[in-house]
Amino acid sequence: MISRGYLWIVLAGGLLGGPLAAPAEEVAASPSAVEISPAKIAKIRELLDLTGAKKQADLVLAQSFERLEAKYPSLPPSFWVSLKEKLNVDGMIDLLVPLYAKYYSDEDIDGLIAFHQSALGRKMAAVQGPLLLESREVARKWAAAQLTPLIEAIRQAQAAAPSPAPTPPPPDAPASGS
User: Fold this and answer.
1) Which of 101, 120, 132, 167 has the greatest count of CB atoms below 10 A from its CB?
2) CB 27 within 8 A of CB 95
């Protein structure tokens, strides 16, 4: 039930040191943090395992590092090894548990687990990654086809729009020639 896109946002935020890179202690101490029973935590972890969340996070992280290493080839391999050791996908999974607890009841989680243990649920988990990648490509092509005429229409409207009138001087400005 966790999408690659969501994982990419979380991991990219962590890699780039953005606002998504809050320390676990800060997240745990947030006012929205609630007490979650050990049984519910175990169920959520089982659900995340069934959905392949950790595998997807590991894959997204590996792909992120490939892109970053290609973008910054002057950095030594030891830098990348050190950075990879600091990032802990398990820590991110720990942070997802309260989110799932917030939005899903125990009964919801039981139902999701049952679904993901079914043949259809296993198929969904198996095709989710490729489906998302292909969907992104379709969305990219659609957006490009839609945006090109839109941008052209904006340019034409700007060109046809009258120039703004000059701004008059403020009333308290000294008169010229005094």
Assistant:
1) 101
2) yes
